[in-house]
Structure formats: structure tokens, C-alpha cells
Amino acid sequence: MKISDVIKALNCEVVQGQFENTELEGAYTSDLLSDVMANAKSAGALITIQAHKNTVAVATLVNISLIIICNSRPIPEDMIDAAREEGVAIVRTAENQFMTSGRLFALLGYT
């Protein structure tokens, strides 16, 4: 499923929209960035509440192309700028990580 299709289906607010509209093959949910580095798979989305530029650095390191920030967390400008430079999409949702993960799990056909 393309990133743009996921954004529409999850009804997310696009915060950083300059990205390549690639296919998502999976997702990883974590708020511990070392866990993301160790376990997240490439070509996926990261579901988290960690709204800072280090999240973008980790996403880039493991080839994550979409960061979904949950619980309507504020997203600082330096995170948006870093994501724009790296071509990583950032979206925000009012839902928590559990609900977002479950919905994306179903959208990607893992049910």
C-alpha cells in the first residue's frame, strides 16, 4: 500500500509532505529509538509518540519512510526540517499507538 493511501485511510494530518510515495511493506511501533534501530524493518512505517529530530535520524538509518506521531503530540520545527531534508513523511493522528497499529495491521492485509 502506498504511503498516500495509508495517510488517507488512517485520516492522518500531514505535517511533512515532501516524500517519495513508496509502498509500505510493514510497520513498527515503539517509543524506544534503540529498539527501532535493532528491530524495525526497511520500507515500513514507524508508529510512535517520539516527536523530535532524533526520530527522523533513526528512521533514516533503518530506511523507514513514514513516521506516524500518535496522541496529537506537537511536532517541533527542527523535526519537520530534518524529515524534509531526508524525504521522510511525518503525519499525526489523535489515536494512540495501539489503535493506529491495529488499523495499519489490517490495512496492510495482515488480518
Please tell me about this protein's structure.
The chain has 111 residues and is of the alpha/beta class. It has a single domain (3-107), classed as 3-Layer(aba) Sandwich (Udp-n-acetylmuramoylalanyl-d-glutamate--2,6- Diaminopimelate Ligase, Chain: A, domain 1). It has 5 helices and 5 strands. Helix 2 links the parallel strand 2 (26-29) and strand 3 (44-48). Helix 2 packs parallel to helix 3. The two termini are 15 Å apart. The model has no long low-confidence stretch (mean pLDDT 96).
Topology:
Layout: H1 3-10, E1 13-16, E2 26-29, H2 33-39, E3 44-48, H3 53-61, E4 66-69, H4 77-86, E5 89-92, H5 97-107
Parallel strand pairs: 2-3, 3-4, 4-5
Antiparallel strand pairs: 1-5
Helix pairs in contact: 2-3, 3-4
Features:
five-stranded mixed β-sheet, 111 residues, globular, alpha/beta, Udp-n-acetylmuramoylalanyl-d-glutamate--2,6- Diaminopimelate Ligase, Chain: A, domain 1, 5 helices, single chain
User: What is the CATH first-level class name?
Assistant: Alpha Beta
Low-confidence stretches: none
Portion in strands:
15-25%
For the largest beta-sheet, the strand count, sense and barrel status come to: 5 strands, mixed
- Assembly type of the shown chains? single chain
Tell me the distance between the termini. 15 Å
Q: Which strand order do you get reading across the main beta sheet? A: 1-5-4-3-2
